[in-house]
């Protein structure tokens, strides 16, 4: 037989072993207990039960041989009565002679055959005459028959004379003890795993911008230490976010004030040749400031709500129509999801606006996934993006233009903001080739 390489065995086991901590911890406890139970049961049957059964069979075969020899010495009815009386009182054996009978031809053996083999060996060593026996004919007795010149000497013995009948009690107690020990082990393991699961849930919720005020460290010492470190890290990150938000509010106010003065002075100034161009520059500067602040702020402070996805998609489509593109919106009725509405609406508008800026026809579709999640596709018929540059398109300030031509509207943050919002909801955005010939952005959110 050809053995598989170690690497193949390793991959084979990895595919079939549990992947969760709960399953692996349970396997670590259950597997050794089952192996131990199997070993103890095997040792018990091999070293104890079979030995006891063999000794009992030897004793019964000796009593049968005594009765047969005693009858052979004086094959009379009177002597048979004396032998039967002594055997009944001293050995719990019932002896009778079936005159002119012969041994049955069919063999009646048990399901496993251990008892039959043991008793057959014992009788064969003690008896010289042909014999027949059955351990299954009567549930509580063993039927033994020995051929004699006068007929068949039939001996009925209690089953416990040939078999250790209390073995199942040991196995039963062993199984009960195993179940109790496994139950206690499962409860302790479940409590430890639940602490890790709560820590993972709190970390995932924090990654989505949510807070879990009821989360407290508990469980084993190492798990509590990890939970305490997570809480400290969460507080540091939250302080950094709060400080950044305050800083951005100040920067926003400081930048918008001079822009407002410039816009006012430009409006009050007499008409001149570059007036329209200067107004365009001010609009572009304000748009750039809005993009920078939106990217840095990330809409993290907004609470999640159950919103109508179709309504958000239609609003994004209406915004994209203002650029002159033809927009088609398809969404099932009553399709709702738990989202941060303003942040997610901004992400959809960024994606729809990007599609409208590069294509003449835009299609927005939404559908619920079988897993319970949500998928939104934004497609256009524009030139698209090469496959090897899809990830590059999500980089902040990347416009797939090394010269960063300032005459093009935008600062390269639309896709970056949209992906940040999607990941903040636990999902992601991927790019692919659209059936319309342009780019397709797929937004997938978990259920």
3D structure, described in words:
The two termini are 49 Å apart. The longest helix is centred in the first third of the chain and has 53 residues, at 21-73. The protein has helices at residues 6-16, 21-73, 77-91, 114-126, 167-207, 221-268, 275-297, 309-321, 341-358, 390-393, 414-424; strands at 94-99, 131-138, 141-148, 151-158, 305-308, 326-330, 336-339, 361-368, 374-380, 428-433, 439-445. The radius of gyration is 44 Å and the shape is rod-shaped. α2 (21-73) packs parallel to α4 (114-126) and α6 (221-268) runs antiparallel to α7. The protein is of the alpha+beta class.
N-to-C SSE series? HHHEHEEEHHHEHEEHEEHHEE
Main sheet makeup = 5 strands, mixed
Order of the strands making up the biggest sheet:
6-8-9-11-10
How many DSSP H or I helices?
11
Which structural traits does this protein have?
alpha+beta, 11 helices, 16% strand
Task: Write the SSE topology.
Layout: H1 6-16, H2 21-73, H3 77-91, E1 94-99, H4 114-126, E2 131-138, E3 141-148, E4 151-158, H5 167-207, H6 221-268, H7 275-297, E5 305-308, H8 309-321, E6 326-330, E7 336-339, H9 341-358, E8 361-368, E9 374-380, H10 390-393, H11 414-424, E10 428-433, E11 439-445
Parallel strand pairs: 6-8
Antiparallel strand pairs: 1-4, 2-3, 3-4, 5-7, 8-9, 9-11, 10-11
Helix pairs in contact: 2-3, 2-4, 2-5, 5-6, 6-7, 8-9, 9-11
